[in-house]
Amino acid sequence: MTKPWLEIDRTGLAKLMEGRPKSFILHELVSNAWDEATGEVKIAVAPASTRGYINIYVEDDNPTGFADLTHAYTLFAESGKKGNAEQRGRFNLGEKYVLALARTAWIETTTGSVEFGSQGRREMSTKRSRGSLVMIEIKATKDQMAEIIDSAWRLIPPPGIKTTINGDELPVRTPITWFETTLPTVIGDDEGVLRRSERKTLVRVYEPLSLELPSIYELGIPVVETGDRFHVDVQQKVPLNQERDNVTPAFLRAVRVAVLNATHERLEQQEVTQGWVRDAC
C-alpha cells in the first residue's frame, strides 16, 4: 500500500504563520480577488460568534470565479499566475497559509463550494452565478482586528476596481509621479519554473497618508516598510522571500535609484541627506 511522498502538518504550518501580522491574511485574499477580471471587491471584518475569534470576508464579482477550486487547498499546485509578471500570485501558497490559521473557513464560487471545519474538508455543489466569496474565522484580539481593518486602508486599489471595507470605499489615490524602468522580477518559463529576470515595468509613486510609513508595494499590496520618503508601487511581481514580507537589498537599491531619478526635484533640502538618498547615490 503506497503513501504520499510528503505529509503536511497543518498545526505546524499554523505555528510558522502565527508570528506574522494578521494583516497578511487580508492581503492574500484581496490579492487573489484583484488578480481576476473583477470590478468590485467587498471586504468585511467583524467579531465571530465564538469569543476571541473574528470573521474576515472577501467577495468579488469576477464572472468566472475560481477556475479550479482544488487550488484553494492544494499546496504548490501549478499556478496560472506564474507566467504573468503583472499578477501577484506565484507559489500557489497564499490561501494555504490563511487556511492553516483558520478555525473554520468557507469558499463559494462559480465551480462549487468547500467548507473547512473541525472534521476536515467537505466539498459541496452549491455554486454562485458569478464571483467568489471567501470567509475565514481566525483567533484574534480586538487590537489584532483593528490592525487588520487598518491594513485595508493602506491598500492602493487598482484603477477600475472598487474596493470597500465594512461598506466604506477605499480612496482612489493619485500618484505624484509615475515612470517606466527596468527592475528585477520573477516569471514562469515555458515549463512553469519560476526564474529571476529583468523587465520594464510601470512604477507609481505616492505621498504616504497621515500615520503611514513609506513602503514598497506590489500591485497595490504593501510588501515592506522602507522608511524612505514615498510609497513606491511596482506594477509587476516583486522578488520576495517565500513569506512574501521582504525584498532583497539589491532590489531595494534599484528601486531607490529609479525613484530618486524621478523625484529629486521634489525633495526638500533636509531630505536629500536621508539614508535612502545616500543609498541611491
Q: What would you note in describing this structure?
A:
The chain is 22% helix and 31% strand. The N and C termini lie far apart (63 Å). Helix 1 crosses helix 3, helix 2 runs antiparallel to helix 3 and helix 2 packs parallel to helix 4. The chain has an eight-stranded mixed sheet. The protein has a five-stranded mixed sheet with strand order 9-10-13-11-12, covered by helices on one side. The protein contains six helices and 13 strands. With 281 residues, it is α+β, with helices and mostly antiparallel strands.
Summary tags:
281 residues; alpha+beta; eight-stranded mixed β-sheet; five-stranded mixed β-sheet; 22% helix
The low-confidence parts are: none
Largest sheet, in brief, is: 8 strands, mixed
**Strand order of the biggest β-sheet:** 5-4-3-6-2-1-7-8
Please report which band the strand proportion falls in: under 5%, 5-15%, 15-25%, 25-35%, 35-45% or over 45%. 25-35%
Figure out the total of helices: 6
Helix-strand category:
alpha+beta
Fraction of residues in helix: 10-25%
Cα(first) to Cα(last) distance is 63 Å
Multimeric organization: single chain
Radius of gyration: 20 Å
Residue-averaged pLDDT, rounded?
Answer: 87
Instruction: Write the H/E string, N to C.
Output: HHEEHEEEEHEEEEEEEHH
* Total strands: 13
Shape descriptor: globular
Quick structural overview:
The protein has 281 residues and is α+β, with helices and mostly antiparallel strands.
